[in-house]
């Protein structure tokens, strides 16, 4: 049971990292292995939580992530309800990067909300705002308030092709 729950936790934690980039949602490469390291790990069955604390590093063939602390919350049926990454959150895949102080993935809504000076970047293109909300199952991103988009000529088509490959 613990091994099954660990696999579920690892899979979903990677999903929050990866799904913040639309390209990953369309890719389905074979996964060899995922390694998550941290200074400590607490799996609390009574509270249905898993907490990775200190120097958290997620290393997956499709995506990399670093943060100070990673929380995974389960519902009553042991399915992942939400995932929260806090402190110096950095996610990258190929030339796509996301940076913020806090990222919250909610399973029921399929959204990721990035706060704390969030920034999404693909190549030279950049999205900023006080809050960035990513709709995992669509091509929708909302940045507000103080939204800023920087687009370089030719980069949009290049990014669009990358998401289809």
Q: Sheet with the most strands?
A: 12 strands, antiparallel
Q: How many domains would you count in the coordinates?
A: 1
Shape: globular
The total of beta strands comes to 12
CA-CA gap between termini: 37 Å
What Rg, in angstroms, do the CA atoms define?
A: 16 Å
**CATH class division:** Mainly Beta
Determine the CATH topology: lipopolysaccharide transport protein A fold
Q: State the order of secondary-structure elements, H for helix, E for strand.
A: HHEEEEEEEEEEEEH
Instruction: Based on the coordinates given, report the CATH architecture.
Output: Sandwich
Per DSSP, the total helix count is 3
| Poorly predicted segments | 1-29
Secondary-structure-based class equals alpha+beta
Share of helical residues: 10-25%
Q: How confident is the prediction overall: mean pLDDT?
A: 77
Annotated CATH homologous superfamily: Lipopolysaccharide (LPS) transport protein A like domain
> What proportion of the residues form beta strands (DSSP E)?
over 45%
